[in-house]
């Protein structure tokens, strides 16, 4: 596995991140004790702090706190509170998988991901499209941000969503579609120029190691399984 040690942040190995995401997605319908939910939230927040994303860590903790308080609020209207309590439990259950997925996207480099996928023998027909999509998502997000800023400069604000929603969607979606097409072509050409489709032995600059953090993460997964089944 790969552990990337920078001067500013410490990251888990790419394979370990992927295992964590898959584990919490699979156990999405499993009911963990409340104290385990708190521990999971704290640990994921620590992961964000390790990659210098304090804002995301604070948002995660505050979101969990608010969603935990809502079901315990005084009941004034039974129907309303039942709906709020149900949705708060559902969203609270989704916090860990979604934030781990965000952590995976935010902290993983394409080179490390490629080296890890080749190491575990993932077929090329799956590997290349996945890598293209992996780079595609954050780029589209940035394009959406730039288009929104350009719309604001031209006086097209979010108030148009209510006054003229069709025109607002036209101004927003058409540039995104053009950008998406160009980005897809650029990423495909970049993957081709890097030789991803070429067979044969390749040499990567990433150091393959299994760190103590990865061991702790895997042991924690087994501990969760033991507690839930026990």
Automatic annotation (TrEMBL):
The keyword Cell membrane applies. Keywords: Cell membrane, Membrane, Transmembrane, Transmembrane helix. The keyword Transmembrane helix applies. It comes from the Bacteria. Pfam families: CbiQ. One of its GO terms (cellular component) is plasma membrane. This is Cobalt transport protein.
